[in-house]
Amino acid sequence: MVCPSLVLLASALLVASSVVPLERELDSPTPVAREPEHPLHLAKRDAAGRKTRHLRPFYENTKRDITPPDVGQVATFPATGIPQPTRGIYGGIRTGGTNEEIDRQNPDYVTPPLTDNGIIPNLKWSFSLSHTRLLNGGWIREQTITDLPPSKDVSAAELRIAPNAYRELHWHRVGEWGIVLGGSGRITALDDEGRTYISDIKGPQNGTDPDTFTFPANFPHGIQALDDGLDLLLIFSDGDFDATGTTFMLSDWLVHTPIEIVAQNLGLSISDLKKLPSPDPYIFKSTVPPPQEGHADEQAKESPNGNVPNPYVFSLSQQEKVEAPGGWVKIQDSTRNFEASWAATAYVYVEPNGLRELHWHSQDEWLYIISGHGRATAFAAGSAARTFDLQTGDTAVFPIAYGHYIKNLSPTEPLIFIEVFKAEKYVDFSATQWLALTPSQTVADLLNITVAQADGLIKTKQILIA
């Protein structure tokens, strides 16, 4: 027989657990409708009949056991238990605590190849570790020099704008370059001669590649999402993007100017301006949905000075691929096809198990993993080298002249990333091409191979290797 008092106590606990205290109700945000899923997002691109997984995917436990000879394989940890920092006769069993999930995502931090040597600073930052600002109509998270100190020339932000919401009117003292990860939107801008620009931008649609766009330093601009919302990766030509005086919001300026001055300047009355917004809304919602994709001209306002002659938007889907056995690449710079005022970029698609060849650049390379799982070793000269594991949402930087490669570790999924340089022209140097164009006897003596093997080296840049 159940004690009546216990039944009453259990009932009371059940009721109490389902009641939210009044204070919590008052403090909680107003519920909003859930936004739809966005399958047409670069991080969910198909390959070999499979979709790439969520932001922190579970990696297949493919056979990469380190068995003699040790040629630098990625360590494979047992399915259970703490990942151990051992490699053959080196290292030892860990007896203290650790963050097992992070260790499993970074096997080359725990068990680096024996080719790693010396001291190289951390060259990787995950956007998943960035602070997220939640806004009325979206969110943003950044990667700046405080997160990734070696990235002095470039900072970045992931931005989500809800359907029909705006990124408020603003300008930067630095150049901006962006790529549409998902959804669609509309940009507006004004140049230094008072000419106007308006254009739609869109992400991947039915397997197409996305649009990119740019705004020169100090040019005023704004962005509005269309009915699917808008996911952007924004790149800026200064690592210290959070420094005071980098971004200027129009509304923030007006509310910090005497209202009589604002009224006189705009030709309005003070009473007209009594509802000026709070400073720096950053993202705010639209009161009326805009004309949808393809109808930007319906919103265009004619300037007496005309339209901007050079486009700020570049459609990657209309650019031919540079094909290679291990994938393809699309390069944009001012000497080829798209003058982005400061940025030279490459959009790189590495096939499963493919390799971005051993190379280096004449400028710092900033990298963003759009989709997939890769591995890279940075060589800093003086026998210093360090290997990094790269995942969806990671950024990385290879300082000027650092030798490196990027290997796709998945046997079934592509590795998609962008390379960004603070430069007018995209420049890289291929290690294999250099050797192939050097006298064969010199190469044979250097590498302890035969002259015939040296003669067989490929004389053109491979870019991507299967």
From TrEMBL:
Every Cupin type-1 domain range: 127-274, 314-455
Annotated Gene3D superfamilies: Jelly Rolls
GO molecular function: metal ion binding
Binding site for Mn(2+) 2: 359, 361, 365, 404
Segments of this protein annotated with the region Disordered: 286-307
Cofactor(s) of this protein: Mn(2+)
Binding positions (Mn(2+) 1): 170, 172, 176, 221
Cofactor note: Binds 2 manganese ions per subunit.
Statement: the UniProt record of this protein carries the keyword Metal-binding: yes
Keywords assigned by UniProt, alphabetized: Manganese, Metal-binding, Signal
Segment forming the signal sequence: 1-18
TM ranges: none
Active site: 419
Top-level lineage group: Eukaryota
InterPro entries per record: Bicupin_oxalate_deCO2ase/Oxase, Cupin_1, GPI/OXD, RmlC-like_jellyroll, RmlC_Cupin_sf
GO annotation (BP), single: oxalate metabolic process
Metal-binding as UniProt keyword: yes
SUPFAM superfamilies, per database record: RmlC-like cupins
NCBIfam families in UniProt: bicupin_oxalic (TIGR03404)
PANTHER family cross-referenced by the UniProt entry: OXALATE-BINDING PROTEIN (PTHR35848), SLL1358 PROTEIN (PTHR35848:SF9)
Protein name, per record: Bicupin oxalate decarboxylase/oxidase
Organism whose genome encodes this protein: Thelephora terrestris
